[in-house]
Design brief:
Strand content: 5-15%
Radius of gyration: 28 Å
Shape: globular
Structural class: alpha+beta
Low-confidence stretches: none
Bound molecules: adenosine-5'-diphosphate, magnesium ion
Length: 733
């Protein structure tokens, strides 16, 4: 589709949506429809014999092995439930290291004698599947000739139904492992890391004697999702959006986000209709989405769920991304989940809100009133601080990708330097503890609004800091550097593991100090001593100021904090001896499993970048250059005609010369890029060498092509420009 057609259609579509008569609608009844497509606890309780239900709960909550008989009964109940909802297929749904989800559908129909069929799902089919694993990335874990991979049912994440036009499919969340049990997915290490953290956290509770009735500690997660919507017509007229998810060219529009008139603005009718449908679909799947609003950039939006247990929240996060992508075309939109679809405009992230809770419902990161007396909270807080300082490199690596490289540090997203924000109240307590004892908690107070009719509202104990990569926000930490298109499973695996180690460390010291018969006084003394030590060693990671400022970069360097500016610098940290030992010690990843991930991350980085480079050359050669040459011919003709008529045309001649020069430079830059993009390293054999080459040679060449391309856009006749512009894409809805 050319730009003119795309623009005409997009504008028509936009007007049609605005002028469309309002439909009457059947309201979504949360009490009846919420999670109606989920085989969750409610459905299980209603449909399973009591003993089977209880034994399943034992498996879900305490990891007790699942009995074959129980599995058979559950499978049959699940199948009947799915059939009632129109499903005739089922699939093991898993998350390979591509970062996406995978499914291979099987029919529930089984031949049953001549001319007859029955619907069936056996216990063993529920528990285990064997998809051909050979084409999923394994990063060297497994040779293609031994391509066996198994999917294993994760009963802690409920099965759900995905509805198609003619059929529905029962999706069973599973882990994906190789035949010798190595994790080939994102879920397996996540589950291991939750176990590791839970075990260490329980030790702390035992020390404080607060473990009564607690049988499990786990983490909670609420991930806010940012995304862009562009009209599908524009999307299809931009080969770069189609193949790379981001624009490789595009001059800055005169009106971007300067006026901040999009942020929290009223949501356009067409976008609202889209959001409504997304939310209805997600609510049916039991995904508790709650908040929606316009984000900072024009055309950018956000959606946030209520937090859940991390494993389920991660699965739900994948469903959120899939649902946004699937529903958008019904409204003539394309949902862009890329971290930086438009240069010079804010990018998209995924704020990862993380906390630790007991199965009795106590949030262990809740400071409560009189925080300075809440020693248990302070232990958990300091454990997180210590973990982030010790392993800020791993945390940084956990969110590294080609796409996120464009966003981090771009003055809209936290920099690549990891640090922790605490706020005034906690900072004050930390400083007191460093001196040996904490004696007071700064009071929050109330805000007087100065108008009699307005209520007094309570003030939070600390202001927000939107610039910090890892901020304490009241009763949880918010990891803000996560990219919008990434699975949240991996960053959470890393957070859980580093905090598990830190808690282990502190628990060991405290256990030693208080001995077999602890007294309150002895414990308090020991805690104060240990925390004083932790704080003095690790307080360099705490920063409460503006993370976007230049001063912070200098200050961070003085403090010796790592600044891993891009994926190529960050990912190799995962191979360090320290990292290997950490993941091994807590049974989260073996050395080969970890190494395979490093290879996959680098390979993915290199492949994505190479696709971009190739796409850029193609657009430059086949779309921009022809337009530029056409424009050049027009200018030349006009100069010749003017001079032919005997009129002096100095400035026209000058403009022509400048244009010829610019076109020449552009052509040369394309040739340079093409040359740089001819890789000598084999991508799969030497992913690090390839990635380094891309970072140092291909990216600068791409920057130059882009600079000149954008200059051409600003120079040549608008009617000749072949690509939908930023102004068009960002303003039509
Ligand atoms: P914002 O940060 O946008 O002001 P909130 O702080 O209310 O909004 O919540 C943001 C996200 O944090 C939501 O998804 C919410 O469910 C999640 N959240 C709140 N409490 C917790 C918790 N204890 N653990 C994990 N996530 C949480
Ligand atoms: Mg937030």
């Amino acid at each position: 589709m050319n730009r003119q057609t795309a623009t005409a259609r997009a504008v028509e579509e936009s007007i049609r949506w605005r002028e469309r008569p309002r439909k009457s609608f059947a309201p979504f009844r949360a009490d009846q429809d919420f999670a109606c497509d989920v085989f969750g606890r409610q459905a299980m309780r209603a449909r399973l014999p009591k003993s089977v239900f209880q034994s399943l709960i034992q498996t879900i909550e305490h990891g007790e092995p699942l009995d074959t008989e129980v599995a058979n009964v559950v499978a049959t109940a699940m199948k009947d439930w799915a059939l009632e909802r129109g499903a005739t297929r089922y699939t093991h749904w898993f998350q390979p290291l591509t970062g996406l989800t995978a499914e291979k559908h099987e029919s529930l129909i089984m031949p049953d004698g001549p001319g007859r069929v029955v619907y069936a799902l056996s216990g063993s089919e529920l528990i285990q599947g064997e998809p051909d694993a050979s084409s999923f990335p394994s990063g060297g874990l497994r040779a293609t000739f031994e391509a066996r991979g198994y999917t294993a049912w994760d009963p802690s994440s409920p099965a759900f139904i995905v509805r198609g036009d003619h059929d529905a499919t029962l999706c069973i969340p599973t882990a994906f492992v190789s035949w010798n049990g190595e994790a080939l997915d994102k879920k397996t290490p996540l589950l291991r890391s939750i176990d590791a953290l839970g075990e260490q956290a329980l030790r702390i509770l035992r020390i404080f004697g607060t473990d009564a009735g607690v049988s499990r500690v786990y983490t909670t997660l609420g991930a806010e999702q940012e995304y862009f919507l562009v009209d599908s017509n524009y999307f299809h007229a931009r080969p770069d959006l189609v193949s790379c998810g981001r624009t490789l060219f595009g001059a800055r529009p005169p009106k971007g986000q300067q006026l901040a008139d999009h942020y929290f603005g009223s949501i356009p009718q067409r976008v609202l209709a889209f959001m409504d449908e997304v939310e209805v679909e997600l609510h049916r799947l039991g995904v508790p989405v709650r908040t929606r609003h316009n984000e900072v950039a024009p055309g950018q939006y956000e959606l946030a769920p209520v937090f859940e247990e991390t494993n389920v929240a991660c699965d739900h996060q994948m469903l959120i991304m899939e649902t946004l992508t699937r529903v958008a075309p019904r409204y003539g939109f394309k949902a862009l989940l890329h971290e930086k679809p438009f240069l010079g405009v804010n990018g998209s992230g995924k704020h990862n809100n993380w906390s630790i809770t007991t199965d009795t419902g106590v949030n262990l990161l809740d400071p409560r009133d009189e925080t300075h007396t809440n020693m248990q909270f302070l232990v958990f807080l300091c454990a997180v601080i210590q973990a982030v300082d010790r392993h800020s490199d791993l945390l940084r690596a956990s969110i590294a990708s080609a796409a996120n490289d464009h966003r981090l540090g771009a003055n809209e997203a936290p920099p690549a330097i990891m640090s922790v924000f605490l706020g005034d109240m906690l900072m004050d307590i930390i400083e007191q503890l460093e001196q040996g004892d904490a004696k007071r908690t700064i009071k929050k107070g109330a805000i007087n609004l100065g108008a009699k009719s307005l209520p007094q509202i309570p003030r939070h104990s600390g202001d927000r800091n939107r610039t910090s990569p890892f901020a304490f926000t009241g009763n949880k930490f918010e990891f803000r550097a996560v990219g919008s298109s990434d699975s949240v499973a991996w960053p959470n695996t890393v957070i859980n593991t580093i905090v598990a180690e830190s808690l282990d460390d502190i628990a060991t010291q405290l256990e030693k100090a208080v001995g077999a018969n602890p007294t309150a006084a002895k414990l308090e003394q020991a805690v104060k001593r240990v925390l004083k030590q932790v704080i003095s060693e690790h307080k360099r990671i705490i920063f409460n100021g503006d993370n976007y400022s230049k001063e912070w970069h200098a200050e961070a360097e003085r403090r010796g904090l790592p600044n891993l500016r891009n994926t190529v610098e960050a990912v190799p940290c995962l191979k360090s001896r320290k990292a290997v030992a950490l993941f091994k010690k807590y049974n989260v990843l073996t050395k080969p499993e970890l190494e395979s991930r490093v290879n996959i991350f680098l390979e993915k980085y290199a492949k994505q970048c190479m696709i971009e480079a190739e796409q850029m050359v193609a657009i430059g050669r086949t779309a921009i250059l022809p337009a530029a040459i056409e424009h050049q011919a027009r200018v030349a003709e006009s100069v010749a005609a003017t001079e032919g008529a005997g009129v002096d045309c100095e400035s026209g001649r000058q403009a022509l010369e400048d244009l010829v020069e610019l076109v020449e430079q552009f052509r040369e830059a394309l040739a340079q890029l093409e040359k740089a993009a001819r890789l000598e390293q084999d991508l799969e054999e030497q992913p690090l060498a390839a990635a380094r080459h891309i970072q140092s040679r291909v990216h600068p060449a791409m920057d130059e092509v882009r600079r000149l391309g954008d200059q051409l856009e600003a120079t040549i006749a608008d009617e000749l420009w072949p690509l939908p512009t930023y102004r068009e894409m960002l303003s039509t809805r």
